[in-house]
Specification:
- Helices cover about 45% and strands about 10% of the residues.
- It is mainly alpha-helical.
- The protein has a two-stranded parallel ribbon.
- α2 links the parallel β1 and β2 (about 50-55).
- It is elongated and about 40 Å long.
């Protein structure tokens, strides 16, 4: 992710009273699609504390693989 983009995310979240120094994590819903994975990646790269929320409805054959991928990406914050 370009540095300028992450700085924009930092500025926006700081004006929303969500900062990296906050003791409150950001809860982010991650479906496994490109947009929510991008958001998660930006938050993790910027070192924000996050809680990842993902729900597998088990309606599609690829749903389990998406769940595993979200889990793998989420573990980057540890």
């Amino acid at each position: 992710m370009p540095l300028w983009f992450n700085k924009g995310v930092d500025m926006k979240l700081d004006t929303s009273h969500l900062s990296k120094q906050s003791s409150l994590p950001i809860i982010v819903g991650v479906s496994g699609g490109a947009d929510s994975l991008c958001l998660l990646g930006m938050l993790l790269d910027s070192r924000y504390p996050v809680i990842v929320a993902h729900l597998n409805h088990q309606l599609r054959p690829e749903a389990e693989a998406e769940t595993e991928y979200v889990r793998k990406v989420s573990e980057r914050q540890d």
